[in-house]
Amino acid sequence: MQNANFPILGKRMATKNYLSGLFGASPVAPLQEHMTLVDECVSKLLDLFEAMSAGDTAAVEETYYQIAALEQKADDKKHFLREHLPTGLFMPIERQDLLDALRVQDLLANRARDVAGIIVGRKLQFPKETNESAIQLVKATVETCHQALNVVNELDELVETGFRGHEVRRVEAMLIELDELESTTDRIQVDLRAALFLVERDLYAVDVMFMYRVIESIAEIADDAERVGRRFQQMLAK
Amino acid sequence: MDYGTTYLVLAVIFGLFMAWGIGANDVANAMATSVGSKAITIKQAIMIAAVFEFAGAILAGGQVTSTIRKGIIDVSDLGATPEILVMGMLAALLAAGTWLLVASYKGWPVSTTHSIVGSIVGFAIVGIGVDAVQWGKVGMIVMSWVTSPLLAATLSFLIFRSVQKLILETEEPLENAKKYVPMYVFFVGFILAMVTIVKGLKHVGLDVQGVQAVYISLAVGVLVMLLGKFLINRLKFEASDDINFHYANVEKIFSVLMVLTACAMAFAHGSNDVANAIGPLAAVASIVESGELSQKSALPIWILFVGGVGIVLGLAMYGRKVIETVGTKITELTPSRGFCCEVSAATTVVLASGIGLPISTTHTLVGAVLGVGMARGMASLNMNVVRGIFMSWVVTLPIGGVLAIIFFYILKATFG
User: CA dihedral in degrees (A227, A228, A231, A232; nearest 10)?
Assistant: First the structure.
């Protein structure tokens, strides 16, 4: 790490400076970059569902690959951050809270990939009676995820203010909004299950099983987005 | 005295070399904060450092120089053999220089000040006797190495908390920054001027005391405050800058003022650390000139010049690279943090200079950074460095001492 930016200079100078060693790499930007990738990954689910309801299997498959690629990128980012977070760092947030937030963020991308994987692998096609609420559910979930990203993007402002005052109240208001968005997904999920229930006996049973699983996973994405927010609540409370 | 001129020439060379080393490494630490937060360019940093290190050394450096020169050891027992002290001081310079070379090669957080004090004590124990060391004074100096980072940490914690309360926590941080930041600048200007006038100027033959000193300091404070206001008023604030990071414009205000705190840091550093190089030189010069141990003679101004020139040379030749490396690596220190750290560190160092305590500027700065960290203001600090500093407190005194003893015997064998 020492003199990593100036390998030649470092060799020539042959001195190390301890004042610069005092400043560890900030975890803030990598955490935000990770969440940005995750959000992008989850957002693709909307494309996927729209392609599915249009019956465009090629587009569904294409979107799946995009989701898988983004999930991979997020995963790499996660490993990078973990490797650059040695113990013995003095941070304004607990190391454990940070790692927890990272883990939950990563879970979001994993679930998005799983949903996309099931839909592609099983060539799943939601019945047209359910299409509208399915897309609504995905939209609301993506919005919840956006809001979680907005919260994560406030972390640099929180560090700037030293987790105090106006900025904290701002983030708290955002967290309340996040909760509300998550409740919306719960309500839509109930509607979607009801709509699916009405038509399920005309469908292939195994497919229906997987449809319920997809619905559940999407709801869990929204849940996890809210959990990211809860980690932040903990960081604020310290 | 035999070899009088030789001693003096050697002392000037060693003193210059020591000052050069301080300029090359130490000054960079004092300036890098401002460079790292992009408040000033490297070129500007070097110019500011050159002017204010010099000013600090000459206007406020006398007190610490006098401590290094005659506060650590009592030479009344030496009587007829003043050469012992000459060789001892030369050995101390060599020992401190050598130890610093090794430490900076290895990246150990060793301070120039600690090295020179350790070396002088080491030589005194062997060359004169255990009783010759003014243990009370040395104890006080060593205590100040612990208390100065602590004081800087407390100060920066309080200053940062007040910046939070008055500026960062509020709904109108930009307006409040414009309003309150100049007051911090006033505070720095006032303290620096006060210490310089009361404690420093008598060494250059000026004696200003009492109410007059307060008036002048107030005037200096107001002057730099107006300068700060002028710098802020020249800034253009774009609302669009705040979209990604809501405090970008607030940071801009702190950023321009880091030009002023950089001046304060350089001044403070000059007032305290130059003594490490020229204190021993001053001791040698006074013996060689008078042929005896006169503890009362005033500090000749040319010696302060030697120190100033050495520092500026080191800075120009080598310090540039160090500033570059350190500056690019501490970008995490945003202007608001850098401002708080430099204000507290500069204040602490100048206060120590006024009392005549030789302390480490860099350790003080590290303390200040930790103070902001305690207030949850730093994204990530590596505590291994702090552990290293604790270690350096423990090892530098004995190592400097042993090296000085070795060099003392070599010199004695050569000239004795």
Answer: -130
